[in-house]
Design a protein that fits this description.
Layout lengths: L3 E10 L4 E10 L2 H22 L6 H21 L2 E9 L6 E3 L9 E4 L6 E6 L5
Antiparallel strand pairs: 1-2, 1-6, 2-3, 3-4, 5-6
Helix pairs in contact: 1-2
The protein binds zinc ion.
Length: 128
């Protein structure tokens, strides 16, 4: 199944206020999810292998990166969508906020670069 890019209407909500905007997400097929998972595992296990070189620190760093690799690999494997880009208005200061590419887990927590308020992005329509 080839992956496709969807445009979603989202709400940006802070504690009191809400704004709307839209984001583009790439729907990930099973093959891409598997590739992301293997890539994450390879990256962090590679770092763990490199950390073997450091005396004493390797007792902490190697298990840390091995476990982090497993955790992030599972997370990448379960993610169904990846953010491509998007723009919403910050609900607090009303300035444009651009959404960074990342794996999507709704609701997404974001922090406005202008006013430092945090808000959540929630897709408007209910999807399955
Ligand atoms: Zn703001």
């Amino acid at each position: 199944m080839p992956s496709s890019i969807l445009t979603l209407e989202v709400s940006a909500r802070s504690s009191q206020k809400a704004e709307s905007g839209s984001v583009r997400v790439k729907v990930l097929g099973p093959l891409e999810r598997a590739k992301d998972a293997v890539r994450a595992l390879g990256l962090y296990w590679g770092i763990a292998l490199f950390c073997v070189l450091f005396p004493l620190l390797h007792f902490i760093l190697v298990p840390f990166f091995l476990l982090l690799g497993i955790f992030l690999s599972v997370r990448a494997g379960l993610a169904r969508e990846r953010m491509v880009d998007g723009s919403v208005l910050c609900p607090e200061c009303k300035k444009p906020f651009s959404v960074k590419p990342a794996l999507v887990r709704w609701p997404m927590n974001e922090v406005c670069q202008e006013c430092r308020w945090s808000f959540v992005l929630i897709p408007d329509s209910t999807r399955d």
